[in-house]
Write a sequence for this structure.
């Protein structure tokens, strides 16, 4: 796991606060970056474990979380997964990690990628026909709509006090 920047950490905390407030008294729960999510197939015969667990930056689960076992440390049914992109993990998050999620998590409705060096969010969402569509939300005054969990995230709140690198 790559170490995170100040911007990355700030955006993650803002995301936790915003979602936490909006999801109070709703049938969804915000889970911290420490919650493991199963993102691949578990082969019990050989105990193949490589690539089957991930640590999203933030996860939202519905009112009936399902777990791998009695330890309740590996979530099986996330609804929304958020990743704050880092230079060292961005390609993996956009490709292989997303492929694992969409192939192995029937419960997943939204995958949200948040850029940390400019106000830009990529929202991948599962449509009724089970295909995935992508919406880009950019600009500090923009709003990300998440109908699946009845939330609206204002980019100005996500990026509050975040200083972007100067253009080179």
């Amino acid at each position: 796991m790559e170490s995170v920047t100040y911007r990355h950490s700030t955006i993650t905390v803002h995301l936790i606060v915003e979602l936490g407030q909006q999801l109070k008294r709703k049938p969804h729960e915000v889970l911290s970056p420490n919650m493991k999510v199963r993102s691949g197939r578990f082969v019990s015969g050989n105990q193949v474990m490589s690539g089957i667990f991930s640590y999203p930056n933030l996860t939202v689960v519905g009112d009936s979380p399902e777990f791998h076992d009695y330890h309740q440390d590996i979530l099986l049914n996330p609804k929304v997964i958020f990743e704050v992109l880092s230079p060292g993990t961005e390609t993996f998050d956009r490709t292989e990690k997303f492929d694992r999620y969409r192939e192995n998590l029937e419960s997943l409705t939204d995958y949200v990628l948040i850029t940390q060096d400019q106000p830009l969010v990529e929202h991948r969402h599962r449509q009724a026909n089970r295909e995935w569509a992508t919406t880009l939300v950019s600009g500090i005054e923009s709003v990300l709509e998440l109908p699946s969990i009845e939330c609206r995230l204002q980019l100005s709140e996500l990026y509050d006090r975040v200083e972007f690198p100067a253009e080179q």
Summary: The longest strand covers residues 78-84. The chain is about 20% helix and 30% strand. Residues 12 and 57 are 7 Å apart (CA to CA). The first helix runs from residue 6 to 23.
